[in-house]
Amino acid sequence: MYAQLVKSEGAKSREEMLPEEIAFQDRIDRGEKIEPKEWMPEGYRKTLIRQIGQHAHSEIVGQLPEANWITRAPTLERKAILLAKVQDEAGHGLYLYSAAETLGVSRDEVIHLLHTGKMKYSSIFNYPTLNWADIGAVGWLVDGAAIMNQVPLQRTSYGPYSRAMIRICKEESFHQRQGYDIMMKMAAGTPEQKAMAQDALNRFWYPSLMMFGPSDKDSVHSAQSMAWKIKINTNDELRQKFVDQTVPQAKYLGLSVPDENLAWNEDKGGYDFSEPDWSEFFEVIAGNGPCNEERLGARVKAWEDGAWFREGLMAHAEKAAARAPVAAE
Amino acid sequence: MGAAVETVDRTAFVEWLERVGDSALILGHRVSEWCGHSPVLEEDIALANQALDLIGQCSLWLEYAAEVEGKGQTADHLAYRRDASAFRNPLLLERPNGDFGHTLMRQFLFDAFHIKLLRALKDSADVRVAEIAAKAEKEVAYHLERSADLVVRLGDGTATSHARMAAALKALWPYTGELFADDAVDRAMAEAGIAPLPSSLRAAWEATVKLVLAEATLAMPGEVWQHGVGRTGGGKQGVHSEHLGYILAEMQFLQRAYPDATW
């Protein structure tokens, strides 16, 4: 779940819709995929650009907290696995920017919106990775939460987004397993390692719950996105599913979930749990999280420092084109 | 394990395997420092992939070094528990990343050497060396294709990109001589038929470098003072720059701070 608080256009009733909007909605209701060159309401296109763009940015910014431990990974094998994983995340960014391009917006344009603070990335990446178990927790909890949201999005109505999700989900489930594997080693390790594992869970639990976005009662943009099948489940449904899946995994590790209100509720067949601190969530989204400045700063610096590189390649391509013989006059 | 191991000085063989393995490890470390910070998304992907290749190669070489040494160590022991003076990579590979042009130029100068070395090692009298080289060669052929291509495009790009690549070449050239300096370990390996003398790879390396630099509109540097080839030796003999200590402090932190842990 790398898209939060995606602003959607207001939902229209069937009576308010134009004939082409009705036909479009009917296609979605029949489960048809919408493809790039086909007619779509402007609101559908704009909402998708925001959502896919935010998702792509999350993949790219999301490299940073994990890359923070590549040079310190404790074994050659762990280093190789982490490199492969971070490379996958960059690859996900690439598919998603490409999916956004099919909606008529270039990669450079959406990256510019990220760098100028007009587009966001997931709040989770504004939290620091402080010990090696955090790399386990990111795979287990953060990728676990992402999968929870992305598996249903494989059925989303927009063809290129849906196909990107199918590829991404395959890799994410590997990521989650490797994260859990690190947690198992840490939780079964020395007392210091076990303490790192517990510390990682303590710090990543609530930020992971925030990944699903605000409570349904405060989530104003969901209705239209759900009608368009850009969003498949509500925030609270997914959060509940995540908690129900994750609590037994924490127990298996011998770690405690940092929530004194956590209890199995027989009636609903799920856990009762404490809500995250939503004021913290909104502060992090607004740019005041522990790592917002570093994360966005690192991306902007990479872009600015690399300008000469990109310009050099463009200049060479132009020279090469000018030198190439003209095929047909 | 190939027959050659029985007839060669094991200490020299271990040292030589560490030279090849440490080279992959230290360059892989440097390349991985770019992860998430490179000028364009495709470069992030390519660099992570390249670092991954190098860490994989390092594991194979150091695992073999540990076996030949026969003291019950693993590749991880060698990577994470030796101090700087026991590392055997040439100085070029521990040079700081600098700008992206420095990183690419370092990569190109080494790739052009690395590929010649691996191609020669495919005919090694030691079967295991030949096998590892054959696997690594496929990866490094691509590394060279990529780094040479980028050196050409940036050398012959804008005035700025040209100037940056020229500055990188000037800064790194004094570290290329060490790649080809033969010593007693190299001679023992050559006599046993395990590896070529580094000096024997020089002409082919120079030919590649000359060709690529010409296309990149960069002048081939002339004779300059070379680091690491004098009486005290260089990285190949364990006499490093100040930079390696910091690389190891970072890389080995967890293994050093929690020596009883398994990860």
3D structure, described in words:
The complex is a heterodimer of chains A (329) and B (263). With 329 residues, chain A is mostly helical. Chain A has helices at 19-29, 42-61, 63-67, 76-101, 107-115, 132-153, 159-187, 191-210, 222-227, 235-253, 278-288, 292-305, 307-323; strands at residues 263-265, 270-272. Chain A has a two-stranded antiparallel sheet. Chain B has 263 residues and is an all-alpha fold. Chain B has one domain (4-220, 235-257): Ferritin. Chain B has helices at residues 4-7, 10-32, 41-69, 75-81, 100-121, 127-155, 159-172, 184-191, 202-215, 242-251, 253-257. The model of chain B has no long low-confidence stretch (mean pLDDT 96).
Report the average pLDDT across residues of chain A. 94
Give average pLDDT of chain B, whole number: 96
Shape of chain A: globular
Calculate the terminal CA-CA distance of chain B, rounded to whole Å.
29 Å
Percent strand of chain A equals: under 5%
SSE order of chain B: HHHHHHHHHHH
Instruction: Find the count of extended strands of chain A (DSSP E, 2+ residues).
Output: 2
Q: What percent of residues of chain A adopt helix (DSSP H or I)? A: 55-70%
Instruction: Please mark out the parts of chain B with pLDDT under 50 across 5 or more consecutive residues, or reply none.
Output: none
Oligomeric composition of the shown chains: heterodimer
Rg of chain B = 18 Å
Structural class of chain B: mainly alpha
Spatial strand order of the main sheet of chain A = 1-2
